[in-house]
Amino acid sequence: MPRHSTSPTRRVLQPHETLVEVASPLDRLDMPRNKAVRTLPDGLVCHRILASESRLETIGGGLRCRELVVDGSAVTRIADGVRIDYRLSARGCHRLKALPASLRAGIVDLRDCLALEELPLGLSPAFLELQGCTALGRLPDDLALRGGRLNLRDCALIDALPERGIVAQLDIAGCGRIDRVPEGFRVTSWIDVAGSGVTALPAHLDGIGLRWRGVPVDARIAFRPHELGIAEILGERNAERRRVMLERFGFEAFMTAAEAEELDADRDPGGERRLLRVVLDNDEPLVCVSVGCPSTGRRYFLRVPPTMTTCHQAVAWTAGFDDPADYAPLIET
Amino acid sequence: MPYENLTTFFGKPVEDVRSGMETWDVTRVVPRFRIEYDSEDSVPMLLGDYAALPGVEATEAIVIGFWQGDDSEGSSQQVVEALVTYSERFPNLRALFLGDIISEENEISWINQSDLSALWPAFPNLEHMQVRGGNDLALGRFEAPHLTALILESGGLPRRAVRDALAAGAPELRHLELWLGTEDYGGDTTPDDFADLFAGRLFPKLETLALRDCAYADDLAVALAKAPVLERITTLDLSLGNLTDRGAEALLASPAVARLSRLDLHHHFLTDATVARLERLGPSVDLSDRQEEEEYGGTIYRSIAVSE
Description:
The complex is a heterodimer.
Chain A: E1 10-12, E2 26-30, E3 45-50, E4 58-59, E5 64-69, E6 77-78, E7 83-89, E8 107-109, E9 127-129, E10 149-151, E11 165-171, E12 185-192, E13 209-212, E14 215-217, H1 219-223, H2 230-235, H3 239-249, H4 251-257, E15 261-268, E16 271-278, E17 286-292, E18 299-304, H5 311-318
Parallel strand pairs in A: 1-2, 2-3, 3-5, 4-6, 5-7, 7-8, 8-9, 9-10, 10-11, 11-12, 12-13
Antiparallel strand pairs in A: 13-14, 15-16, 16-17, 17-18
Chain B: E1 8-9, E2 12-16, E3 30-33, H1 43-51, E4 61-65, H2 77-85, E5 95-100, H3 119-122, E6 128-132, E7 149-153, H4 159-166, E8 175-181, H5 195-198, E9 208-214, H6 217-225, E10 235-237, H7 245-252, H8 255-258, E11 262-264, H9 272-279, E12 284-286, E13 294-296, E14 299-301
Parallel strand pairs in B: 2-3, 3-4, 4-5, 5-6, 6-7, 7-8, 8-9, 9-10, 10-11, 11-12
Antiparallel strand pairs in B: 1-2, 13-14
Helix pairs in contact in B: 1-2, 6-7
Protein name (chain B): Cytoplasmic protein
InterPro entries (chain B): LRR_dom_sf (IPR032675), STM4015-like (IPR047722)
C-alpha cells in the first residue's frame, strides 16, 4: 500500500466531532478521546488510525490500514474483512470480544482485554501481547509466531503453549496451568517463569535467560530456591534480584537462618506473633511480622515497612491502617 | 560528542528515507530512517514505506536515526518491533546502526534503548551491530553466527548489557567496542565484569578490544596488563577515558602490550614523561587529546569524554 507521494493527508477529529465525509485514502486519522463516532466509514483506507479512548464500537466495512490504535476504547468487535497490515493496538479494550479471521498484523497488542475469550484463526504476528487477558481460554491451534515476543503474563486460564513457532521473549509469569514448553516452540533470549507451572528449564531451552516477573534470575532462584545460601542472599548487590531471592527462599526460612533480631512479640487469637528484622546492605532492613491464622492455624510471614516497631502496628499496616489505634478487629476469620 | 550524523556506513553513502518515495537505489545507498521533532511520521511508518518498495530484499545495511519525535522519553522499542516485523523483507541485512543520534538531537545519555533480543533471530546474517545509548539497553542471550563487530556506545553502559554482550554466541567476533561511561549515567560495571574476557575464554577470533570512555581506566589497565587476552589481540583501545600514569605504568610493564600493533589511548591524563615512554614502547600509539585535571574544593576531577 504505497502512501501518497505528493500531499500527505491527515484528518483530526475533535472529541465531539462526527465523521460525515472522508476523502480516502488518508495518511492519518487522529481521533483520540472522540465521543461522537461509533463506527468508521465503509471502505476507508488510511495508513494510521489513532483512536485511543474513543467511543468507537465496531470496526468493519472493509477497513484497510497499516496501523490501528484503539487503546482504552469502547470497541467490541473488529469484523472479518478488516485488513491491518502492521500493528493493532487495542490495550485495555474491556469490551472487545471479536477479532477478524486472518489478522495479518505483525504486532498485536491486546493487553488487558478482559472480555476476550478467544482469538481468531490465521494469526501469525511477530509480537503478541496478551498480558492480563484473564478470560482467554486457549491459544488458536494454528498460531504461528514469527520471532518477537509472546506475552501471556497472568493469562491464568491458558494451559498450553503453541506446539510450533519461534519467539525471542516468552512471558508466562502467572500462568499456573502452563507446565511445559513444547519441543517445537523455540525461545531464543529469555523466558519469564514466575508463578507458572514450569518447574525446570527444558533441555531445548538450555542457555537462555530466566526472569522472575521481569527480574533476571538463574535456574536456582527460579526452580531450586532451597539451594540458596543465606550469605549469598545477603551478599547479592542487586536489590531487585535479592528481593526475588528472598521471596523464593521464603521469608520465614530466611528469618530463621539469618538469626533475625526480634523487635517485638505478643499474642492474638491466632497465637504467638513476632516482629523480626534482618539488616541488608544497600537496602532498607527486612522486617517481617509472623502471625498465625485463627481459623486454619497456618503461620504466615508478611513483609512490612522497616519503620514498624510492634506486632500490632505491623498487622494493622497489613490491614491498611496507618494508625494502629484505628485497628481493633471485633472478629477475625 | 558525537556531533555529526553518519555520512557513510558499511562502505556506502547514507541517505534519509522520506515518506512517499517510490524507488530506492538499494545497491548504492544505505537508508537511514529518522524523523524530526515535529514530524507526523514515525520511524516504523518510514520502515513500512521502505519495506513496500521493489527490490529492497537486497538491502545490506540500515541506519536508524532520531526516533523520539516530540516524545523525549520514547524508547527504541517500537523501532525494534518494526524492524523485526519487516525483517522478512530484509533477508540480506548485514549491518545495523541503532541510534545515529547526535548531541543536537538528543544527548547520548538521554537516548532510551530497549530489549534488542528479538533483532538477533530476525537478522541472522548480521555482521556489524552498532548501538548508541545505554539506558534500558538489553541485548538478551543471543546467537549471531556471522557477527564480526559489536559496538555499544553510551555515557553509562549498564552491567546487564555488558553481560549480554560477553555471553553472546559470536564465534566470528573480531571487534568488540564498549563505551563504559560513568556511574552518573548508569554505567555500573567494574573490572571484575570482564574476568572471562580478559582470561581469553571468549571470542576466539577477537582482534580489537576497545573498552572506551571508562571512568575507571587505571583499574582497567591494571587488570588488562597481565590478561591472557592480550596475547591474542592486535589492537587495544582504552581511549576517551580517564587514564593516568598509574594505569600507564601497568601497560608499560606488560610484555604483551609491547607486542600489540596498535594502542589507542587518546583523551588521557598522562604526564609528558609517560607519553614519551609509551611512544617508544613498540605499538603504534595514539596519545592525542591530553586532558587537564580540574580541582574543586580540594578534589581532583578527571572527566571522561562522553558522559551526558
